[in-house]
């Protein structure tokens, strides 16, 4: 009987899928998320290889070819497949290199906002009630302001540049990580494994970073994916308003700002950067929804 029982346990262990396989099983059920994932992979590839796959230098001006239409339109040329902007710069090269700036913005903002937010959230979750109340009221004050307006004010104080725009966006997004981390920590503190760790003599830092934090990562990962798209969108908005990346940087929002006066007679100079922002942000949001479905146990099908 013991032998049969051990065989049954071994069979169940063998049948149980690995974490990565289980994650992919739930993730691929959301077809929109899979589509978003592959678009995001293409976006990362373009961002990594833009200097080599772009046909021209993004800042090089071909003055004899200003506002040349895309190749499929009358007057277009294969030398500039997506046309040129008002200064004769190749639109395809600028769009490809713009992906590098958007990816850089997303990575930096998410790393800075998540690192600071997780630390403050852990501190709030483990701290006495009075300190927790002070931290959360500060976060509520930041969240009370419209995010783009607060980012604009911060950039106006720091000075218009892409780096300052990233700092401002990271500060604006940080309260979301603080609230999320604190809520997850408070939900974990009364569980048996935390009590066992305390009885075993685990110190405060070990409890925070080794015992509790790994079990709070699922919602934080989902938030990071959604923050990535928000960072790209906010950086483009700040660039469009002249408070982000400055010309001649081929950042998508700045490209929109430079071309807005030509929208009626050269649709491609505005439409193409707008489409790049739309497709990238939509793909990352779809991927974020799939991550939430795959990482949230409450949403998993039995």
Explain what you see.
The chain is 71% helix and 0% strand. With 302 residues, it is mainly alpha-helical. It has a single domain, classed as MetI-like fold (Orthogonal Bundle). Helix 10 packs antiparallel against helix 12. The chain is elongated and about 75 Å long.
Structure classification: mainly alpha
Mind telling me which CATH architecture this is?
Orthogonal Bundle
Total strands: 0
CATH level 4 superfamily: MetI-like
Question: What's a quick, concise take on this entry?
Answer:
This protein has a single domain, classed as MetI-like fold (Orthogonal Bundle). Helix content is 71%, strand content 0%.
Structural features:
mainly alpha; membrane; cell membrane; MetI-like fold; 302 residues; transport
What order do the helices and strands come in, and which of them pair?
Blueprint: H1 2-15, H2 19-27, H3 31-53, H4 91-126, H5 129-144, H6 147-158, H7 162-189, H8 192-199, H9 204-212, H10 217-240, H11 252-259, H12 268-295
